[in-house]
Amino acid sequence: MNINDDFIHALLIEDNPGDVRLINEMVKENKGRTIILEHQSTLSEGLQALLKDKYDVLLLDLNLPDNKGFGTFIKVYSQNPEIPIVVLTGTKDVELAIKSLHNGAQDYLTKGEIDSALLLRAISYAIERAGLLRVVQSELDERKTIERELRKVNRALRMVSECNQIIVHTSEETDLTKKISKTISTLGGYQSVHIDLLDQQNGISSQSFILENGQSLKSILSLLNGVFDLIKKKTLETGEDIICNDIQIDDRFQSLRDKINKLGYRSFMVLPLKSDGLLLGILQIYSKEAKQFDSEELKLILELREDIVYAIVSIRAQKEHLRTEETLRKSEEKWRSLVNTIPDYIFLMDTEGRLLFVNHDIAGITEKQAIGRSVNEFLSKEAQTIFRKKSKEALDTREIQFAEHSSNETQNDIKNFEDYLVPIIGQNGMINFLVISREITERKKAEEKLLIAKEKAEESDHLKTAFLHNISHEIRTPMNAIIGFSTFLNDPDLLPEKREDYTEIITQSCSQLLAVITDIISIATIEAGQEKIYEREINLNLTFKLIYEQFASKAQNMGIAFRYQNQLSDIEAYICTDEIKLTQIINNLLVNAFKFIEKGHIDFGYNLKDNNLEFYVKDSGIGIAREMHEKIFERFRQVEITETRQFGGSGLGLPISKAYVELLGGKIWLDSELDKGSTFYFTIPYKKTNNPAFLKEKQPVKAIKIDIEEPKTLLIAEDGDYNFILLKELLSDLNFNIIRAINGIQAVEICKSNPGISLVLMDIKMPIMNGIEATKLIKKNRPDLPIIAQTAYALEHEITRFKDQGFIDYVIKPIKKDELFTVISEVFHEV
Ligand code: ADP
User: Fold this and answer.
1) How many CB atoms lie within 10 A of CB 556?
2) Residue 11's pLDDT is what?
3) Does the C-beta of 640 come closer than 6 Å to ligand 1?
4) Cβ 737 vs Cβ 711: under 8 Å
């Protein structure tokens, strides 16, 4: 209503008819705008009328029949705050009128003082003031709205900014959604915020709620999940956002209306969180106010939604990245620990030889330090060349290459490696080499040893073959002579001189044969470790003299100057040693000296040096090449091994000599040059004896004639018939009455039953009872009966014990007449 309108529509609530009439009169008198005045007499009728019609102004008497005083004003005003009210009051009630003015009335008129002009002015002013007030009020309202909007936008901005802070600083999904829900709810002023995250099968993987205080989780959950299901379905189908500004009037969500109403919500928003068309989750926001989401706010929330999506995607990518990294790390760790436990060197290098990976420290340099360095730094010059060559071949052929190299360490600590060079072609066509290097030093050594052993075995095989040829030759040659010339002896027409010659040839051949057999037995005994030393006191000078005499005639026949030299006096020359072995060694050396000489001289002798006796045998023969100086001491070894060789021999003399020298505690060596002759040296410890009187000088072997005046009974214990016949024949010139026993027992019995027996020749090896046992038994009855052992040379260690076993002396088979006679004559001399 406007005061410039033609009519003023006024309502008078007044119970006094006089006052009503008076006011009507005054209104009529009005010359200005027409006032149409309606009248009601009670408050209730007045209020009814106000509800029904619209009035520009209300004239209100405070004392009405149904309500009196200030209460009347309040009731009217509270129902119609818009309408300008002019209070009519009596003079006594002015205070009430003023109170009404303070509470919203526009003016008051005191009854009895009103005139028409006053009334009209009061009405006009009231209407005008009310109009102005309305304008002011609406401006105020508008301002308030703007302020509220501003506050809201501010809050929304803060919400977005805080959410962004959270996004930046949070690295875990559930943590993120919880914090964001809380911030949206607090700063956005929403009662409930809910973020569901989905897993790959679109099931809920995590849920974060923010609920208003006092809300039951159960009820809100049932709502949220209901909405969620609906929205998920819808979102999966259409992917659209859902924004409902008032559930009361929005029919799209009728099915949810009851639930939402029950919780007191009016508006809500459901936004899918999507990335690249993939639904990651759903954001739900509920508010109690209708029309909560204006366009600005909506814009911000939609932007925020994008930020949340971005954050989730980043977190997931980061997580995936970490997981991949972890998987990679674990796989690398596994691979590394595997590769590191392999003792071989495994390394990766580029075509320039730069190391890209190594599995071990190399030459004291750690794996880390080695990376980037050239492989050549760790290789010998030879190995560098091999690697270069093999790398090139691998590049050309693209095939695995195999090589062997040795380390560049000091010569005596050299290490060998075998290498596999594997070309590895990368995706970009780049080639690297994987090298697997295995140390094979021990294997190499073993191979070398095996090779040497094989060569040795072959050589020894070869030597054995040569030996068998030689030995066959060495045995057959004398045998040939023995058999051949023996048949001539049967010829009755054979001239006596010839017979003598032939007999000499046969004897010589027998000695030769015996020497060969002796050597074979000796080497076998040595190799079986059975050879032992039997030391006794000897006079070295005497031994030398005997040896010299043995070779003197041979030297004379050959026209060779032959000398010997003793350094020690005869008294100093009493030493303790194994005479048989010492003689054998010197003999062997002299036999060789005579064998390998044509003309010139042969000297032998000894010197005392540092408590050792140093013996020498020197010849001016063919000499021995330097490279053979050690080899000739190996068994069967001879310098000359051709079929057409000119010198005989079995190749056993030097090895036997060497073994004997070593058994005696010395060493043997030689000094020789081809064509200039040889000197063989050997040492033995000088064990001087202080009891020369103990020694019995052995007489040189010479023909002895034994004179036995009275016939003596001699028992020969011998199982071999030929040996018995030989002995009988050898002793036929002597005045012996010979009895035979064919074993030990017989010998014992014969001696028992025949006290006339004055000498026994006892064979050691016999059936039933051996000679040693028999001798013991015989000696029990006849302690003074001289018994001479006859034995084979091979049992040398027994020979030295014969004296302890009751024998007076011994002869060695094959028995030579001279030796037998010497022993028998000595026995009879002693007896
Ligand atoms: P054998 O003389 O029976 O062949 P040895 O073992 O005594 O066997 O000698 C081995 C080899 O050593 C001889 O075959 C010979 O080649 C060489 N030899 C030994 N002594 C001499 C020497 N004094 N002069 C030259 N060569 C010798």
Assistant:
1) 11
2) 95
3) yes
4) yes
Distance CA 216, CA 228 (A): 18
Is 501 in a helix, a strand, or coil? helix
Count of Cβ atoms closer than 10 Å to residue 4 Cβ:
6
Find out whether the beta carbon of 87 lies less than 6 Å from any atom of ligand 1. no
CA of 482 from ligand 1 middle (Å) equals 26
Between the CA atoms of 500, 501, 502 and 507, what dihedral angle is there, to the nearest 10 degrees? 90
Residue 232: pLDDT band with limits 50, 70, 90: low
pLDDT digits (tens, 9 = 90+) for 118-168: 888 899 899 988 888 888 888 888 888 888 778 777 877 888 888 888 888
Alpha helices (H) along 342-372: 367-370
Rounded CA-CA distance 502/317 in Å is 117
**What pLDDT sits at residue 744?**
93
Whether ligand 1 lies within 6 angstroms of the CB of 242 is answered as no
What integer best gives the mean pLDDT of the chain?
A: 85
Q: At 292, is the pLDDT very low, low, confident or very high (cuts 50, 70, 90)? A: low
738 closest CA partner among 750, 720, 722: 750
Query: Is 790:810 a contact under the CB 8 Å cutoff?
Result: yes
Axis-axis angle for helices 496-527, 441-489 (nearest 10):
160
What mean pLDDT do residues 325-350 have? 86
Residue 777, by phi and psi: left (phi above 0), alpha (psi -120 to 50) or beta?
A: alpha
* Interval 50-77 mean pLDDT: 93
Specify the residue with its C-alpha closest to ligand 1, atom 21.
592
Angle (CA) 389-390-396 rounded to 5° is 95
Tokens matching residue 38: 């309606």
CA of 502 to the centre of ligand 1 (A): 29
- The β-bridge partners of 168 are none
pLDDT value at residue 137: 83
Q: What separation in Å is there between the alpha carbon of 92 and the centre of ligand 1?
A: 174
Question: Taking Cα atoms as reference points, which of 423, 437, 340 lies closest to residue 383?
Answer: 437
Residue-wise pLDDT tens digits, 734-769: 888 999 999 999 999 999 999 999 999 999 888 899
- pTM for the predicted model, two decimal places: 0.46
Q: Which long-range contacts does 287-291 make (Cβ < 8 Å, 24+ apart)? A: 287/189, 287/190, 287/191, 288/191, 288/264, 290/245, 290/246, 290/248, 290/266, 291/245, 291/246, 291/267
pLDDT value, residue 52: 93
Structure-model confidence comparison of residues 360 and 555, the more confident one: 555
| CB-ligand 1 contact for 653 (6 Å cutoff) | yes
- Which helix (H) or strand (E) segment holds residue 255: the answer is helix 254-262
Q: If pLDDT is split at 50, 70 and 90, which confidence band does 206 have?
A: low
Is 300 exposed, middle or buried, given 0-12, 13-18 or 19+ CB atoms closer than 10 A? middle
SS3 at position 821: helix
Helix residue spans in 559-697 (DSSP H): 579-595, 653-663
Lowest mean pLDDT among 345-359, 404-418, 522-536: 404-418
Torsion, Cα of 716, 717, 718, 724 (10° steps): 10
Closest by CA position to 268, among listed 227, 219, 221, 218: 227
Q: Which of 769, 788, 777 has its CA nearest to residue 714?
A: 788
